Amino acid sequence: MRSTTDHGFGNWAAVAATAEAIASAPKPDDLGSMPEWDLRDLYTSPTAPEIERDNAAAAAEAARMKAAYQDKLVALANDASKLAVAIKDYEKLSDLMGKLASYAGLYYAQKQADPARAKFYGDVSESLTKTSTDLIFFELELNQIDDAVLSAALKHADLKHYAPWFHDLRKEKPHQLDEKLETLFTEKSQTGRASWNRLFNETMSSLKFAIKGEKEPLGLEQTLNRLSDPDEKKRKAASEALAKTFKANLPLFTLITNTLAKDKEISDRWRSFSDVADSRHLANRVEAPVVDALVASVRAAYPRTSHRYYKMKAKWLGKKKLNSWDRNAPLPEKPERVIKWPEAERIVLDAYGDFAPEMAGIAKQFFDKNWIDAPVKPGKAPGAFSASTVPSVHPYVMMNYLGKPRDVMTLAHELGHGVHQMLAREQGPLLAPTPLTLAETASVFGEMLTFRALLADAKDARERKAMLASKVEDMINTVVRQIAFYSFERKAHVERRNGELTSDRLNEIWMEVQRESLGPAIDLKPGYEVFWTYIPHFIHSPFYVYAYAFGDCLVNSLYGLYAEAHPGFVAKYFDMLKAGGSKHHSELLAPFGLDARDPEFWNKGLKVLEGMIDELEAMDKAGAA
Prior knowledge:
This protein has helices at about 20-25, 30, 50-70, 75, 80-110, 115-135, 135-140, 145-155, 165-170, 180-190, 195-205, 220-225, 230-250, 250-270, 280-285, 290-300, 305-315, 340-355, 355-370, 405-425, 435-440, 440-455, 460-495, 505-520, 535-540, 545-565, 570-580, 585-590, 600-625; strands spanning about 320-325, 370-375, 385, 395-400, 520-525. About 65% of the residues lie in helices and about 0% in strands. It has a domain at about 215-335 and about 465-625: Neurolysin, domain 3 (Orthogonal Bundle), CATH 1.10.1370.
């Protein structure tokens, strides 16, 4: 069962936030009362008897299904009503196992440095993996059903709903192994890939970064936060601290990267995937030429986007070139204000409500019902995510809220995911999950709605310039940086097929793609070559990163249509979100007249970014005049 190996609560690196680090961040009282997760809609506690009950029930149901359906599904397809019963059994069990996995993952994410939580998460994962081995036969046998027989069965009223799921399943047929090999791959994942992922997480959780001028070492989240400090000395000190600690752990991160790349190569070879990214494209339900068109368009736009912007920013900061630690420095004209949590809630809900009251109504539940875990806490996972959990419950959003305007945008982003996941729930456990290429659609759109609302309220030219610059940087980080990350992964995985990569070679590849994407206006200082080590997606989800660029460019095109008052836009948009994973991206974009196979589609999205840079350049010229 595919849902049990990717537990769906968010693939983010586990990094501890120390008590000392929290002391350097705004106090919770300064930011207002912030919600923390109430996980009781899943389970009341890790010792709740319902967990043991559901775990046993899942194992028993998987064993029953194996006895009832193994070696019988092909024949069962001749009676569509009986096949429908089997599919619904499978779907119901998927929801139960997903609920267990979601609780374990979210409970662990709240305090990843806690050994008891790590053990609980590991034990639940191991148990679910064992249970899932009884179900490996299920999808393999469904793919043995004759095409004509399956086509006839899918016309049955009880099976029509599952036709897109069967269609996607058919695409996996050339890459599936026999049951014994699939069982071996699944069982070995616990001591293979899953263990290396956990090693990365728990290593990151233990890392401390000694920053010059700070009394105590900080965790990764707070140290990275220093790279956007107005004081250049603090930015430089943070960059040097990151480089020093990453270098000290470089052999381990190199080993983890080499091992996971080899693990993927073995899996790809056995499953007959020719290109290093083919398995990701299949999982994303997107064709390689579409991704190639996206990558080519973004790389061709580097000089018109990131190179041009960073040259302008260097001038704003009074430099010929930006140092690598200056890339995310705030503009000197406007200090960054602290936005308290209640104001952040109002800003996002108002922006959502202006677009569609239904969207704001769904998002408000996250605040009112403690479906958000907002404050920075010791041992908590860094960054932010929205965990879809299972359709029978609801999503949960994780934040590390520090009161910056960028945190408000992150809140809008993750709530977009949450709204999307809530709307798609009606599709059920098998069809609600959205491919990564479309999973960012609502999140980036929600972010854009919030940005446009804030920009409309900007009181003067300096404030507008600061906001535009901040949004441009976010879009560069989402599009340019993620495609650079994708280029790094491609080179590393291709070269790994010919043998292990040394730390020096990984550093070289990193610097090659960074120089290409960031351009000549940024001076990549010694130490920056090891910054590849902390990117969690390289470890948890190989080639995931292009989905961000896909989503951002897609949303830019969609938002352009919304701004042009495209007929029936809101209704079409909600239909797209409600579809979940039940439709291919081409079907979802067709009502808007968009086609991702056309390079002009991507160029249209990139022109939104270029237009913002044009506006910043015009402001500069007006100021100089």
